[in-house]
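Question thread 4412

I'm putting together a teaching handout and wanted feedback from people who do this every day. The idea is simple: show students a protein as raw sequence, then show them the structure tokens that encode its fold, then repeat with a second protein so they can compare. Below is the first pair exactly as I plan to print it.
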Amino acid sequence: MKKKVIIIVSIIIVVLILLVPVPFVLRDGGTVEYKALLYKVSDVHRLTIMEENKHEEGIIIEVLGIEIYNNVK
């Protein structure tokens, strides 16, 4: 019985480590990235390189390094 409790608690701790994000603020105009080990969500707000006085806004979602959603305009 005690062994099952230890296994369940260790699984819960591992899942929390994999899913809890850490926010990073980038110096490109206000982009915020939330990174966990399994996924990354970027709230993009940055200046464009090609055109002056223009900026890009949107959200990028990546799971296991594969981009699954991108609406940056």
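The second pair follows. I'd like the answer to focus on this one:
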Amino acid sequence: MINNIIRNVFYFVILVLIQVLILNNIHFLRIATPFLYLYFIIKLPIGTSETKVVVYSFLIGFVIDLFSNTPGMHAAACTLTGLLRQPLINFYVGKDLVEGLFPSYTTFGYGGFIRYMLTFVVIHHVALFLIESLSFFDPLFLLIRIVVSILMTSLLICIVEAFNIERQKSGE
């Protein structure tokens, strides 16, 4: 229990710092920004109550909003994805998972984790960019921004997850 709390606080602080200090300053072709902080919500233990997931999701989105000067956009998109997290896990992996496991390549399998993570990122990015634009004025540009940001975020999450798997294997 204490280990999970320490792990969650560590991930929260580190991912917020990486997002705010580094990734918010990356605008690939002035179109896309990766949002690695989603990894915090994705990696919450299975069996975490839906209320806690939604509160954690809102908090990390709110903190990102504070540092990014984006009033409520990340909080709203994160809250939506926090609400949909458990149904996504149930849909892609099933309901008979042991509580306390962390979503990963090893617990979900490579295909299951990638489908879960990609759907999660798509929902977040579509919500975030629609809230940001508040219109369909230039739908092609909006679609390009969404797709490129999804690709960058997903690639970063897969890289971090691969390093986590390697770290766990070497620690055993």
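Top answer:
Good format. For the second protein you could add a caption like this: The chain has a mean pLDDT of 90. The two ends are 20 Å apart (CA to CA).
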